[in-house]
Automatic annotation (TrEMBL), chain A:
It comes from Lentzea atacamensis. It is a multi-pass membrane protein. Keywords: Antibiotic resistance, Cell membrane, Membrane, Transmembrane, Transmembrane helix, Transport. InterPro entries: ABC-2_transporter_component, ABC2_TM, ABC2_TM_bact-type, ABC_2_transport. This is Transport permease protein.
From TrEMBL, chain B:
This is ABC-2 type transport system ATP-binding protein. The lineage of its organism: Bacteria, Bacillati, Actinomycetota, Actinomycetes, Pseudonocardiales. Keywords: ATP-binding, Nucleotide-binding. The keyword Transcription does not apply. One of its GO terms (molecular function) is ATP hydrolysis activity. The keyword Manganese does not apply. SUPFAM superfamilies: P-loop containing nucleoside triphosphate hydrolases. It comes from the Bacteria. Pfam families: ABC_tran. Residues 15-242 form the ABC transporter domain. It comes from Lentzea atacamensis.
Amino acid sequence: MTVPAGREARTVFATARRVLGQLAHDLGTVALILALPCVLLILLRWVFHGVPGSFARAGPQLFGVFPLIVMYLVASVATLRERVNGTLDRLLCLPMRRLDLLLGYVVAFGVLAVAQAGIATGLAVGVLGMRVAGPVWLLLLAAALDALLGLALGLLTSAFARTEFQAVQYLPAVILPQFLLCGLFVPPEAMDGTLRLLADTMPMTYAVQATSRIATEPGITSALLADLAAVTAFLLACLILGAFTLRRRTP
Amino acid sequence: MFVPLDALSENQQPVVRVDQMTVVRRRVVLRNISFAVPMGSVTGLLGPSGSGKTTLIRTIVGLQARASGTVEVLGLPAGSASLRREVGYVSQAPSVYPDVTVRENLRYFASVLGLRGEPRAQAVRRVLSDVDLTALAGTVVGRLSGGERSRVSLAVAFLGTPRLLVLDEPTVGLDPVLRRDLWALFGRQARHGTTVLVSSHVMDEADRCDRLLLLREGRLLAAGDRGELLARTGTVRAEDAFLRLVEAPHSLEAG
């Protein structure tokens, strides 16, 4: 049986609209999503106040970290709620593809991710004096992609969580190893072979490399494009894997 | 012990056909269940709490793994993708979004069913009136009472035009007037050709059904026409029939 392609797109947008509707009734969460990366950047600038050159290095790197973490948490809680509410079971009993549900989340939170990236970029470049050698719009794009990667990681891992406790436990399990190996503390080039290999399998490494490159290298280099492509590939892989792990049947 | 009250005639295809179905989840939850639900009936799935009603229902809508035996809906294996448009399912917990309004919930689920524009608006108005929630359409679901929430959940199942409605304890905790109205609504749905399978642990509600499935401790005590079941057990109420089947099953097996 073939279904017209427009139907799926409408389901995606209906889902995005519903998620945005939920957010509209919960402006506190929206404010947190938008403000949190900014507050963290201000704090970071303050921490590095007496250490010249540190913010210039770490600022862009953390640009690849904060949006990812914030969106990761939002996404894992949102999907878990969908499961606990019973609405996930209901949707899976309706004529809806699992991937379309996740894409609906991506569209809705994508809107939020772009807004978040815009505000954070404006603050970092305009107010906190973060120097960006490459085009600023590219930093904005990288931050938005990064947020969406966090969203996809959250959607994927929450499929494995059975309770709120488990979902929260996945944050240190999934995010902290990436945080340690992403190049923030030691550049990947300086890591030993195995560690380097491990770092290379982690999506956050590419997100941090991309934002660092935009800050230090003028113009669009092929290395930068490779990093952005890697982030996008991880994003898509997480979504497709996430759609497969949304289980319809319970034991 | 199982008393088959009537067999469906050969040419009538049942909407639900369950044959020798067993579900084991650490313990045996359902044991060797066989029954059929004919088209256009209101069938009550009655049994005490813990008897396996919800598991049986989840098996029929295809949400329950590890079910051995046959479970067919409209001639297809339960849970087949093409059944998703044909089967409306309402779980026991209200499965709607608590943080948006009643209307926003209904609009969303209608969109997922492929409705849009005026047909969608019409469907939303129709189901709001079916469950008597028109006045609360603009209220955020989280602010509603438990009974009102389960009516929103019920309304979602009426949005499409399913051929089978599977409702897990939809009338628990509702006002008696509303309960009566909902049973009247189920009856209307059945007369319009939608087969309705409703579970309940309140035996009184059995008297509102055309057909009954009596479940106890994972075994089906009886399945069939309510009138015949009462006649066979020499009782006038489903509750008494249930007791008779539990207490003196062997006296009923002959004949």
